[in-house]
Amino acid sequence: MKLSRGIIQVVIANIINLIISIGNGFLLPKFLTVESYATLKTFLLYISYVGILHLGYIDGVYIKYGGRSIKEIEAKVFSHEKKVLVIFQIIISLPVLFIALLLKDTSLLLAASSILPINMVSFFKFVYQATGEFKQYRYITNITSIMIFALNLLFLFVIKTDNALWYISMQVAVSFTIWFFYENKSKAICKAYKVTFEEIYCLIRENVCLGAIIMLGNFMGIWITNIDRWFVKIFHDVAEFAYYSFAVTMLKLINVIVTAFSVTLYHFFCKTTQQEDVAGLRKIVLMVGAIIIAAIFPVEFVIQSYLEKYMDAIPIIRMLFTTQFVLIAVNAIYMNLYKALNLQKKYLVRMIVITVVAFLTNMISGYLWNGNVMAYAVATFITAFIWLVLCQIDLPVYRMRWNEYIYVMAVIAVYIVCANLSIWFGITFYTIWIGAITFLIFPNDIKRFVKIVYEMLDKKE
Prior knowledge:
- This protein is mainly alpha-helical.
- The protein is about 80% helix and about 0% strand.
- The chain is built from 19 helices and no strands.
- The protein has helices at about 5-30, 35-45, 55-65, 75-105, 105-115, 115-130, 135-160, 165-185, 195-235, 240-250, 250-270, 275-290, 295-305, 315-340, 345-370, 375-395, 400-420, 425-440, 445-455.
- Helix 6 (about 115-130) packs across helix 8 (about 165-185).
- The termini are close together.
């Protein structure tokens, strides 16, 4: 599949997710109490770490299949790897369930119950992503979101419950349903091959050894992006955690495009890492990032009009959107290059460094700002910028040029000013500024971007 078609498939998936996220993002905090919303967000914070419990097995499969066609994978191999992962995750889940029972933590217990289905769904997603089957990736992504949204509506407006456990249990049930569906779908393709104890051991060892470093790096990436929420959860009250979590939820509105690039570019970089191609894609990613963070203006309008109890989250959302603009190049370009170039050890070392930086910046900012939750959003921004700079050191061949740095700084400076103006004046001035600065700095790349968009929309491609 061509890169442009791959990106458009993921964009379609994420646009559907965007619409659903808008629904979930605004409906849940509006109709649930702050306490129930905080409980739900605590569960979601727990399950964000479920992906590390396969210990790199799925990442190993992802690296092994990267750049290959789905037709090149033997049915027997696929069947064995899938069965072994089921057995592996059942073994992993048992002690976590036991710990949750000892702690009598219902949210943790339900999160532990989600380990197997979530990681099995991730297995299918990673296989589709690595092999360029982005249409299938779109289906599996959308069906999950649609089911969760539909059930949220049922609980909010038909059953009319404020009990967070209903919403949490529903998410666990959806994970199992999606896993069973794709499990049965894969059985129609693969025969019921038996797997021996020796094969179980060999496949776990092979895939974990291949993917463990990437998994650790990804875990640290999750930790880096979640550490601000942990500081807020530990050192602040339930209401402030709910406000901050709401601000983080709003990031989904701009992650639609970010994810489209980060998901598709690994498959592309497995085939080519030419310096000119990477540089062109990086500039396009920056231009797109500058456009999508303008979502802050409609977000502010909706909050001011319909969600007044979350007005305190607006400054946090502004800073997190700015952070996401810095991170778009990191996530879409550099993280994929580390993997495609087999720089797993360098990737792990860098992630360890960034994890330490994230912890220190959050701790220092929280202390200096005397407990103001805004401090953690600022710390996340500082961490993101350091992360971007360190990527330039690790991958000097793919280093950003001076005009790209000027572009990043110009976008950030004007964005911060415009976001603090009135909504309509701010969005007007920001739109004019972005159009002007992009044309002045990247005239040739604008033509390339237009060409790529044209290819995406060309049905004959």
